[in-house]
Amino acid sequence: MNLEYLKSFYMTVKCNSISKAAKALHLTQPGLSMQLRNLEKELGADLLIRSNKGVKLTEEGTVVFDYAHTLLSIQGNIERDLKNLQEDTPKLIIGSCKSVGEYALPCSIYTFKQLHKEVDIHMEVDNTATVIEKLRKHTINIGLIQYDPKADDILTQTIISDQLHLVGNCCDSPKEISIEDLKEIPLILREKDSGTRYLIEKALQEKGISIKDLNVVYDLNSPEAIKSSILSGKGFSFLPKLSIEQELKKGLVQPIKVDDLEISFNYYIASREKYNFTDYEKMFVDFVISSKRGFC
């Protein structure tokens, strides 16, 4: 497949206009149209519906567009990694779930940077599912995630253990509730693709309970936003101990024991199955794993 044609197709869809895409690609409109026709001929399918209002993907075009995004990302990452190897400054590109990336990992990165000042470090914070997706798309080479996906193409190494705590504010929260009580209290949960949400759903399923059985008032994709909601008395939530250690020490939140429900889990270093770490990536992974608690 001609990647130049694929890039032209991708840009046309993003711009929703052949004329705008041609300008962005520094091509003439007839030249771009010819590339699009050649790609359709090569694949044996119509990819675009052209009109005065722009372009629209056909069903086949939607499939090709999704693959184009992945292939062009891989191409860009190959060029980036080769450029990094040719440059004097080594680079680390790390993806992390939020409960690690927003709380524990910055300290470890700072310490590692002090030991290796020559390394340029970039960290992207997402939920676990997105970190795994970025590994697969070669956007990152090291991931820190909240559960093991148990996938053939992803390798994991355990860092540390943690536990999800049900917490409320310090003023009027009970210290212990039953499973039935859990169904009634207002809950604020992480978004569906997050590691925390996955762990909660898995633990409840083992007790024969669905998320639909709970009184979920809203979802948030930020642990900090959830903590703010809890502190202002808007509801209760399950959060990793790692993300609420300071609030627990200061007595700002009240941990609540739920009868016969304990949600323990591990954090993992994740990588692609056949990927070989660079020297500095290997040093960083060893540094995180060998630290006393996995993080400083």
Explain the overall architecture.
This is LysR family transcriptional regulator. Residues 1-58 form the HTH lysR-type domain. Keywords: DNA-binding, Transcription, Transcription regulation. Pfam families: HTH_1, LysR_substrate. Belongs to the LysR transcriptional regulatory family. The strands form three sheets. Strands 3, 4, 5, 6, 7, 10, 11 and 12 form an eight-stranded mixed beta sheet that branches. A two-stranded antiparallel sheet has the order 1-2. Strands 8-9 form a two-stranded parallel ribbon. It is 45% helix and 25% strand. The protein folds into three domains: 3-85, Arc Repressor Mutant, subunit A (Orthogonal Bundle); 90-159 and 266-290, D-Maltodextrin-Binding Protein, domain 2; 161-264, D-Maltodextrin-Binding Protein, domain 2 (3-Layer(aba) Sandwich), CATH 3.40.190. The chain starts with a helix and ends in a 6-residue tail after the last helix. It is globular and about 70 Å long. The model has no long low-confidence stretch (mean pLDDT 90). The chain has helices spanning 3-15, 18-25, 29-43, 59-86, 98-101, 105-115, 128-136, 179-182, 195-205, 223-231, 241-250, 279-290; strands at residues 48-51, 54-57, 91-97, 120-126, 142-145, 154-169, 176-177, 186-190, 215-220, 237-240, 253-258, 263-272. Strand 1 (48-51) and strand 2 (54-57) form a beta hairpin. The protein has twelve helices and twelve strands. Helix 1 (3-15) packs across helix 2. The protein is α/β, with parallel strands linked by helices and 296 residues long.
